Amino acid sequence: MIELAASTTIIMRLELDTQSGSFAELAGAIGQAGGDIMAVDLIHADKVSTTRDITVNLLGNVTESGIIQVIKKLNGIKLINVSDPTFLVHLGGKIEVQPRTKIKNRDDLSKVYTPGVAKVCMAIHENPSRAYSLTIKRNTVAVISDGTAVLGLGDIGPEAAMPVMEGKAMLFKQLAGVDAFPICLATKDTEEIIRTIKQLSPTFGGINLEDISSPRCFEIERRLNEELDIPVFHDDQHGTAVVVLAGLINAIKVVNKSMDQVRVVVTGIGAAGVSIVKMLLAAGVRNLVAVDHMGALCRKQQYDNPMWTWVSQNTNEECAEGTLSDVIPGADVFIGVSRQGVLKVEDLKTMAKDPIVFAMANPEPEIDPELAEPYVRVMATGRSDFPNQINNVLCFPGIFRGALECRASVINEEMKLAASWAIASVVSDDELNEQYIIPSIFNDKVVPLMRKAVIQAAIDTNVARRIPREFR
Ligand SMILES: NC(=O)C1=CN([C@@H]2O[C@H](COP(=O)(O)OP(=O)(O)OC[C@H]3O[C@@H](n4cnc5c(N)ncnc54)[C@H](O)[C@@H]3O)[C@@H](O)[C@H]2O)C=CC1
Ligand SMILES: CC(=O)C(=O)O
Ligand SMILES: [Mg+2]
Hints:
Elements: E1 9-17, H1 23-32, E2 35-45, E3 49-58, H2 64-72, E4 77-83, H3 85-88, H4 106-112, H5 116-126, H6 131-134, E5 140-145, H7 158-176, E6 179-184, H8 190-200, E7 206-209, H9 216-227, E8 232-234, H10 235-254, E9 263-267, H11 271-282, E10 287-292, E11 295-296, H12 306-314, H13 324-327, E12 333-336, H14 345-349, E13 356-359, H15 369-372, E14 378-381, H16 396-405, H17 413-425, H18 446-460
Parallel strand pairs: 5-6, 5-7, 7-8, 9-10, 9-12, 12-13, 13-14
Antiparallel strand pairs: 1-3, 1-4, 2-3, 10-11
The structure holds 1,4-dihydronicotinamide adenine dinucleotide, pyruvic acid and magnesium ion (MG).
């Protein structure tokens, strides 16, 4: 079983025999095994035993099983249960539906439900756009996955994808006040996914596609955007690209380089990689090499994947061929959206002066940031436990906040570029440094600035179907 890095704290329920179990011995053993006791809670005590919950932080490479083995060897101490706080916050799911008003009496009942509700239904029947003012549509997004490319965990199925989609829904609400429903589909068939989402769409003001593997994700998003009149946004593609561009705008300021001069290598030309390539080109990058597991994409080659054909024809002018190690020498920027361990320290040593490395595979990046740090000037990952978190969570709440408020029919390139510049602008020139190129998701300037920039871009490009008062 893989022990993921998020499980750095465990809670053990232990029964200590009053006669033979010694708490001091227990604490010493946990400490020697590499655990740091964070809290001790007494659950029950009587004349023969005490039951305690001990919260232990696992330091370095210490594992849960290592600590348990040590405890099992102690006299008079029985391990009743081990729980992981990460699992505890998932018990029963992470979100719930809350009514906005309370039904206190029959009169309320007859308004929110039958018979009163019928006239509201008929008003919408006569004019379907009233769904925006009389239902949850205005502020509600569906977070939809088929479970085929969940984080970097791969095709783990729709049930296993739910915790991620619930997490996205929490973030939508907490960061931007957007109500989001997690929906995981029991199909991988492109046409069936498109049909299902179209049928679900009347309920929602927008669709956030999540963790759908490439290349199917490209067709699904393209078709839905053509066939629906609400924005359809594949977060792993565009959310990631928006945040990468924001990070790069600031990182190149730190190293005093410019977009049109840097050589960029992007590894992992899947959902995130294709959109990152497109956005960097739109932002002025001219020297870009895209690498997937077969090596650098080059215009001399033929590809079955139409996206790879597009990328190969619009990048790598000198047609550099070979592996990542072959093409990374001289690169100013490495961007990884592939998988753990793809980038080696030896590769970093061949990069240009002041390398910028965004290693964003989740949950484990392309290179361990601690290994990379001595060789890079600016280091970023997708993780929240290192500085410079480049993660699409910085984008999707704010971009949908703006898109929903102006009832945008799509989220177009201009809105995405505006979102990137808005995120980048949160870090002022005075604050900018190697460890701070991108704001935290908890920075409360992010969503308001993105909202404003996204609405303005939607209005300027004629995709806004409602002009909020402050923009009139
Ligand atoms: N930090 C963030 O915000 C985000 C991070 N990611 C991470 O990026 C990674 C990719 O995600 P998606 O694009 O959605 O997946 P994807 O499955 O669409 O694309 C992954 C690509 O990486 C390529 N790849 C695999 N092994 C490789 C290797 N050894 N060398 C070069 N390329 C290789 C695959 O062939 C594929 O084209 C995942 O680890 C995911 O968690 C994805 C989206 C957002
Ligand atoms: C962050 C995210 O969406 C992913 O890793 O897939
Ligand atoms: Mg994702």
